[in-house]
Amino acid sequence: MSNFDALPPGLPRLIADRYEIRSLIGRGGMADVYLATDHTLARQVAVKVLRHDTADNPMVTNRFRREAKSVAGLSHPNIVAVYDTGELPATEYSRSTSPYIVMEYVSGRTLRQVLKDEHVDEQYAVELIRGVCDALDHSHMKNVVHRDIKPANIMLTDQGHVKLMDFGIARAMDTSSTMTQTAAVVGTAQYFSPEQARGELVDYRSDIYSAGCLFYELVTHQPPFTGDSPVSVAYQHVGESPVPPSEVNNSLPEIYDAVVLKSLAKERDQRFQSAGAFATALEDAQNGIPYRDEAATMVAATVPFYEHQEETAAFRHPRTSEHPVFSSSADERDERPREHRSNRGLIWLLTIIALVAVGIASFLVIRSLQAEAEQRAPVAVPEVKNLSEVDATRLLNDATFKVDVEREFSADVDENKATRTDPNNGAQLSKDSTVKLFISEGTEDRVIPESLENQSEVAAREAIRAAGLEVGDVSRENHASIPTDWVIGTSPELGSKVKAGSTVDLILSTGMVKVPDINGMTRDEAEKALTAEDVGLLAKFVEVPDESEPGTLFLQDPVAGAEVAQGSFVTVSVSVDQPEPTPSQSPTAPETSQSSDETDESTPPTESKTPGTEKSMPPQSTNGNGNGNGRGNRGD
Q1: CA pair distance 445, 12, nearest whole angstrom
Q2: By its UniProt entry, which Pfam families does this protein fall under (predicted)?
Q3: Is residue 2 part of a domain?
Q4: Which of 458, 484, 510 is the last residue of a domain?
């Protein structure tokens, strides 16, 4: 059997005259990952190739190239290394080039598989998070934010090492502000940070929040927030506090709660300021050292807007009885309104400022609610039947949907055309929902190729697999002309229709022929029987003196029923008259010469030859009984 799997159309077996594709080992939303052999360095690598159905989408292509660029500058034992990158030329299956990435081949399981298959205690979870945080510290030092930390993007090798992979939505941070601005919500809903949920600026602390979600799931076997849709989960990330993990998992010590809740703070300034600090706090908790948040408390200083002018005025201008004319009550009445008018003006100014601020805030809140309502507004799934895979995917993407492509057989839709969607067209879904797109693989019926006859076994097996069928049992039969181990026919018969994936049995030639029985036939009949198209043997007739009637076929070698190689000779004995006995000779010497002369003239010849005929003793057969009694059918 071959060690190579069949490849999709348009994907060459050898890439860049160096990487030989062997088998498919993984499939993602936009690319397939293949196990390959690097013939230059004699090692196994993983080749990630953008699929033809997504290569025409510029957004997907740019994201794929960004992954290669992001990881190329990273070199860390906890990050899957990128060795090489390039682009496959356009083919008849794809109108544009298909970029590929050559990466380190990692044999192991993802954390998603680990969580599914086994229980993870807190000690093991801390070890795993330490590996993840070491990888994040390195990428953050290189100004790269991963933005999609989740169990499916973390590999655990067979030796137990942690490997961070899939930087497909990573972004390089602007070194002047150490942040990245995004125009859309990216990441996985159960693990992204509140700022990602709001579509705001993200930085390295967004990865720390996702790492906190990851540790939460490792120790509780469930994410901190769950919901019926990604939108509902996003709202929880923004506005709800997570349940402490020790309340979800009663066996988890409460000492971990403070560390986890610190990593899941809504405001990034309140989280750990590095991935390493998060891992160190978890290790301290594992050793019984509780976490204490030493953030400084800001104290606000209050300054009065104005003083009570009645008291200050009295202090500045005290009344006296010495000059009552200058301190009359009329003067006091004139002074107080001016003081109160000054206070009222300041109050009105502050009131106007407050009303303007409230108005602006109300406008912003209303706009925010409107934007959220537009985001939550459902969208109808478009009709895509009979469209090509590229056109159907583009139409669904334009309707804000994510597309998951699957294939199925269809009797009424041509191959490589869209058959349906799930949910069906017309269904109302929220934006960014995932829609399954089904592509036709053609009718399920397959035709057994008639060209298999008179083909070698190896060629027949390849043709059967190419037709979407499987090779079943192999049997052998005699045939007059088809060489040994070449195909005579199949079961079911050649040219018949069967279901895709059905088993086809091969019937091969033995290279042998069964000798027919020519007993009772004339010479012409025997020759036709032996040289017939379905027998294909050669006849050799030998005339042998015998008591049988002349022309009788009384012996054949090999005997009837024997199996001989194709094109073999069959020797047939033909009866002829026996020669007359020679008269006895006289002892008289003088007559000897004369008698001898007379004998020479009168005695008939003992042999006569005709073209293609010989006289000899009967052939001695050693094969079975047959007609081997030396008499044949003599008509006695």
Answers
A1: 28
A2: PASTA (PF03793), Pkinase (PF00069)
A3: no
A4: 510
Q: Is residue 211 part of a domain?
A: yes
Core vs surface per residue 15-50: b (16+ CB within 10 A) or e: beebbbbbeeeeeeebbbbbbbbbeeeeeebbbbbb
**What is d(CA 213, CA 222) in angstroms, rounded to the nearest whole number?**
9
Instruction: Give the helix/strand (H/E) hosting 247.
Output: helix 245-248
**Choice among 32, 148, 166, 207 that is catalytic:** 148
Decide if 120 contacts 114 (C-beta within 8 A): yes
Residue that is written with structure tokens 């033995």 in the block: 510
Q: Are residues 168 and 256 in the same domain?
A: yes
Q: What is the pLDDT of residues 24-78, one digit of tens each?
A: 888 876 788 999 999 999 999 999 988 877 777 777 777 777 777 777 778 899 9
* Residues 268 and 407 occupy one common structural domain: no
CA distance 106 to 321: 100
Angle at 264 between CA 259 and CA 269, to 5 degrees: 95
577 belongs to the catalytic site: no
Fill in the amino acid letter for 544.
V
| Helix residue ranges, H only, 487-631 | 523-531, 590-602
With H, G, I as helix, E, B as strand and everything else as coil, classify residue 12. Answer: coil
Residue 501's domain spans which residues? Answer: 445-510
Tell whether 494 is covered by a domain: yes
The 8-class DSSP code of residue 153 comes to: G
Structure tokens belonging to residue 294: 């030493």
Scanning 582-633, the segments in alpha helix (DSSP H) are: 590-602
> Of all helices (H) and strands (E), which one includes residue 571?
strand 569-576
Rounded to an integer, what distance in angstroms lies between the CA atom of residue 222 and that of residue 229? 16
In the block, residue with structure tokens 């009709």: 383
pTM of the model: 0.46
For the stretch 398-440, pLDDT in tens is 888 899 999 888 878 888 899 999 988 888 888 888 999 999 8
Whether 399 and 522 map to the same domain: the answer is no
Name the DSSP letter for residue 636: -
Phi and psi torsions of 294, nearest 5°: -100, 25
How many angstroms separate the CA atoms of 409 and 498, rounded? 14
Under DSSP, is residue 324 helix (H, G, I), strand (E, B) or coil?
Answer: helix
Same domain, 120 and 194: yes
Number of Cβ within 10 Å of residue 482's Cβ equals 20
CA distance from start to end of the chain = 63
- Is 473 in contact with 505 (CB distance < 8 Å)? yes
Segment (H or E) for 204: helix 204-220
Residue 48 is assigned to a ligand binding site = yes
Cβ proximity of 257 and 225 under 8 Å:
no
Kindly report the number of other CB atoms within 10 A of residue 126's CB atom: 20
Q: Are strands 503-509 and 31-38 parallel, antiparallel or unpaired?
A: unpaired
| Neighbouring residues of 504: CB distance < 8 A, sequence distance ≥ 6 | 448, 464, 469, 470, 471, 472, 490, 491, 492, 498
Among residues 81, 13, 74, 80, the alpha carbon closest in space to that of 49 is found at 13
Task: Indicate the SS3 state at residue 319.
Answer: coil
Contact, 22 vs 29, CB < 8 A? no
| CATH at residue 615 | 3.30.10.20
Write out residues in the chain with pLDDT < 70, as ranges. 1-3, 29, 168-187, 294-343, 373-376, 581-636
Degrees (nearest 5) of the Cα angle 575, 580, 582?
Answer: 145
